Structures are given as structure tokens and as C-alpha cells.
Amino acid sequence: xxxxxxxxxxxxxxxxxxxKYYAYDKxxxxxxxxxxxxxxxxxxxxxxxxxxxxxxxxxxAHVDHGKSTLADRLLELTGVIKPGTEQxxxxxxxxxxxxxxxxxxxxxxxxNYTYENKTYLLNLIDTPGHVDFSNEVxxxxxxxxxxxxxxxxxxxxxxxxxxxxxxxxxxxxxxxPTLNKIDLPRADPDxxxxxxxxxxxxxxxxxxxxxxxxxxxxxxxxxxxxxxIPPPPVSSxxxxxxxxxxxxxxKYRGVLCLAYIHSGKIQIGQAVKWLSETKQQTVKSxxxxxxxxxxxxxxxxxxxxxxxxxxxxxxxxxxxxxxxDYPLKEISTSTNHVKHMVYAGIFPADQSQHTLLxxxxxxxxxxxxxxxxxxxxxxxxxxxxxxxxxxxxxxxVFTQRLLQEYKAEAxxxxxxxxxxxxxxxxxxxxxxxxxxxxxTNPLLLPDPNNIEEYYEPFxxxxxxxxxxxxxxxxxxxxxRRGSPLPTSAVDDKNTLMQFILxxxxxVVDFHDTLKSITSGFASFDYQDHGFHPSALARMxxxxxxxxxxxxxxxxxxxxxxxxxxRLTEKLKEMIPRQMVQVAIQAVVGGKVYARETxxxxxxxxxxxxxxxxxxxxxxxxxxxxEGKKKMRSVANIKIPRNTFIDVLKR
Length: 650
Prior knowledge:
The chain is an alpha+beta fold.
């Protein structure tokens, strides 16, 4: 009885304490939460940055010249990461970047650095070096006033070095030439400075020398950025205007944008609008990337900030974000359209995954604005998309990111380049608008009788190679239907060569062949040279006289026989044997250029004979031949879907 009374008293005490807490302390608890939230928001950076203390710059270079390593040292020097951290390539955040050791996306990091008792805001953009991702570099420099032109002191000036220097000069940017990897035994800074002098007219005294790996000279480079690169030419007063240089998708916040502010200010809760649409949006989130997000309440002109307008407030790369009262008459809408070099079909591995793959491609396209998508279909592969890329590496990285980031498995068809045709009587033929039509899929090529002229895309290829390989390089380019341009000497050991080349000849294996014949010493870069008249034809594949649409290609007339033999031989290996004989033909305009025959399965109908007259044997063989002939006239050639996949792969 005493134990029961004691337990009851304990329960009553607990109930009284519970009621007292919620009756009297609940309000104070909520007040404490509000006070804590306000104190946190007050700790967020509200300091307005003076535009004279802002420096926006990019690191540009050829592949593997040390851009990401230099970015790591700059992050260490400004206190973003601790020196000696195990993680390297901090700005290379994608899994594909770490696996391949390349930079795919241009990434921004806002750094604070104190120089001569003044605190500066340095907006660093680490850019890719491969030509397939040059679009990232082009978008990055629109938000910068200067670049660090990084050159390997061992390799010297490379092809992409020439390209990014031309880009910086066209945008009137301040260039800080910098030699990297001077700590290596083979480094020859004096020779590379001579190359920079002869090619770009850089004064050797202005060239910085660093070792990004060991940190030598990085502090001096950081101070040179503050001294040489001018502050952004922006106005903090007036209406708010910013342009978008990157976008990506967040699972909970929708589309997030990276914006460079040209004028005015932006703050949380502000009403804004996109230039491409009149619908009003509200700024939900605002942050600096350091490189992790650091929330802020306000940003001013000259800064590069992350802006989010909620799940339904997305923008696109190249669009402009404006205050609601901005006068639209003052805005120029000129944009540089991306020119896609390669097109390929992307299909789901199983049609039940079509929706999953569709969502994945759309989300990834937000983060990679250089791709274009159009719905496509195939009798063998089902519903899919025809996607445009800037090159083969761009294509490989895109499909790898689909699998790694969105678990979407895709089938990739053979890549092809876009062509252009001039159609006779385009106004009469309703399906063609205008006289000239861009063809990205060989199946869409008009009838040859309706085509007045074919046009093929060409590029200007820049090759820097040692002088001893000039002969093999010239032979390779001439074999690929190239036309030579004037050459120039880089120094006494290297030569800069240029050729006008058809895009279709370099898109698959040109770079690998070039590296092979030059023992890896040559570098290659190209830029668009437009469409030029060319002799082209569509080559079709027939199986027992039936057209296989997926295998049609557009080929130059000088390559018809070679491509026909190569494709028919590959098909003979890939297609499984049938119950009937299969004739594989490559046909152009009704003329057969190559043929392979796939033998049928054959049953030994004479196996049961153990002797007797030879007429019995002939009779059985004749009956078998008649049966095969009848079967061939009514049978359909059944080609497994996996065979199409193997043939269509590069």
C-alpha cells in the first residue's frame, strides 16, 4: 500500500511539472527561439562591399597545366581550407572530374584577402582546359575583368593556350601570364618566356613564376591580381540588373542561378523578373560560394552570387535578372548561340525507364547549357532524344554524369556531325522552311532530287608540334582532306601549324592518331569555320533488301567505298546467324558499294543415309534448297536489340 501511494505521488509530481512547463515556459521557449534566430541572422554578412575592392578573375590554361592545383593553393592562402589537407582539387566537385582528373565545370569561389590593411573580395573562377568545354570558359570570362594565363614551364605554350589568349584579348581583359611547375627538373622558364614573347608579345619581366604544388610564388601572384586587374566597371546605384552565368537544380529549392551583378543591389525578399518572361519572382535565397554556400542578406554590383527564387522561379544561362522597374529599352538582347559539333541519339536501356531518363536529362541540361535536345524515335531502340554536344569528350562526360548523378542508364548511338543542304523549291516543299536546312539526323535528309547543294562543317585546327614531326602531321591532315594554312615558329624546336579540316574527319579518332604519330608531344585545338560546299551522299544499309533506318549515314563521296566495307564487315560480325542466308549491302543511290553474306544455319539432311544410290542424296539436298528458298521469301530478319546497340556504339 505504501509503495502504491509513493508511485501515485511521483506521477502527480510529473504531471504538475509538465503542465507548469507548457503553461508558463512555452512562451519563453518560443521567445528564446526567435531571439536565437535573429542573432543568427544578424551574424550573416550584411557589409556592403566597395566595388573598388572587388576583383573578378579566371584561371585559363591548356589541359593539365595545373589550374585546379593553383586554385587549391589560393583557397589555402585565403584561409578557406587548411594547408596540408588530404583533399585535393577542392573545386572539382563532380565525381567524373575526380575520376578523370579533368575540370568539366567552371566553379566560383569568393575569397577574402587582406592586402596593405585593406580587405579585398576576390571572385575566382576555375575553368576547364579541354576544347570540348570551351563554352564554360566563354561564359566565365563575361563575369571577369582579368585572367591568369597559366602555362606549364615544362611543356610550354600549347594549342589551347593560344585559343584562351585570343578569347581574353577579344574581351579586352587584363592578362597575367604565369609559369607553373617551375620546381620540376625539366622546367625551362626562359624558353617558355621566349615563346610567350614571340607569340603574344608579353614582356618577360611581367611573367610570374610559381609552383602551384609547393606554393612557391602564389602569394606574389595573389598580390599581382589585386594590383593589375581593375575593379569591375559597375554602378552600385540605379536599378538592379544581373546576368546568369550558370544554373543547376536543387532537390528542395528548385533551380539555383549564379549571377554577376552589373548594377544596383539585390536582397532577400526583393521582387525581381526575368528578361525572358514578365512574371514577377521573389528572391528566396542569396549566398556567396566560398566554395560552400554562405548565406547573405544583400549583394551589390560587381559581386558574383548565388540566387534562388524558389521551386518555380528558375532561370536559364544567358538570361538576365532585373528589378521590376528596370527600363527594358536599355537592355541589349544579343547572345552568343552555342554551335554543336556532334549529335548522337540517347535512348533508355528499357522503355519503362523513359520518364526517369527524361527527368535526368532535363535536370542535367540545366547544369550543362551547352547541350541541345530534340525528341527522336527508332524502330529498334524506341523513343529517345537527339542530343547535340560540343565534342566526343563532352558526350562521354554527359552520359557518365547521367549514370553517376541520376542513376539513369542510357544507350548511346554513333555520333554524327550536322550538315546543311540547299533545297530546291523550299517554298513548295512544306516540310522545309527556307532554302537552307540543317540536318542532324541522316534519316531527315531530303530526296537527292530536291537538293541543290550540300554543305559540310569545317574547322580551323591549330597544332603545335616539335619540328621533327612536321612531315607525319602534314600527311595525317592531308589524308583527312585538310587544307594547310601558313605556319609560324613557336621557338627553335616547336612549330605552330594550322589546317582547314572537315569536322567529320577529326571528331572520332583524329586526336588519338595525332598523339600516336608524335609520341604524345603535339597538342590540338580547333575553332568553328562554318559550312562550306562539299560532295556528300547518304549511305543506307540493306538486309536482304530491307532498309535498316538506324544505320544510315552521311558520307563524303571520296570515303564511300572505305566506309561501306568497314560497316558491312562489322555488321557481319555483330548480327547473329539466322535460319536463312542474310545479304548485308551498303547502298548509295541504288548502287551497291559493298556486300557481305551471312551464311545460314544448315541442317545435315544426309546424315541418316548410310549407303545406297547417290540420287537419294541429291533428292534430299534439292528438297532442302527449295525449303530455304521459300523460307527466304516470307521470313523476316530478326535482329536482337543488343546487336543494334553494339553496332551503333562508337
